[in-house]
Amino acid sequence: QVQLIESGGGLVQAGGSLNLSCAASGPTFSDRNFAWYRQAPGKGRKIVAAVSWDGEATYYQDSVKGRFTISKDNTKNSVYLHMNNLKPEDTAVYYCHMINYDYWGQGTQVTVSS
After folding, report:
1. C-beta separation of 4 from 22 below 8 A
2. Maximal CA-CA distance, the chain
3. pLDDT tens-digit profile of 53-109?
4. Cα separations (Å) of 33 from 7, 8, 55, 99?
5. Residues facing 38 on adjacent strands
6. What is the distance between the alpha carbons of residues 41 and 91, in angstroms, rounded to a whole number?
7. By three-state DSSP, how is residue 79 classified?
8. Which residue of 6, 59, 89, 98 has the fewest CB atoms within a 10 Å radius of its CB?
9. pLDDT in tens, 31-60
10. Distance (Å, rounded) from C-alpha 82 to C-alpha 41?
């Protein structure tokens, strides 16, 4: 059984930074691709960034390119999302997801005030 637990959300002013973490437990981690999604109030869940199993390949939604960095540490069974220059439109619940498997974290709230 795989569990994904996010942490690091909070309230920050526009222009600030936050670091999200996703700790994974279960039989597999190092050979899996991961992604961060977000869901704003009244909107659907959308992908923000993704990282390959070895951390070598990444993908970013256009709106976060140059501001967010996704990384994966196979020695710590963790995936990270470092968010810089946050904007009010980044406000959402952020979810960690194991790609191609139905594993999601419980979500962590990120609120950016103007």
Report:
1. yes
2. 42
3. 999 999 999 999 999 999 999 999 999 999 999 999 999 999 999 999 999 999 999
4. 19, 21, 8, 5
5. 46, 94
6. 9
7. strand
8. 89
9. 999 999 999 999 999 999 999 999 999 999
10. 22
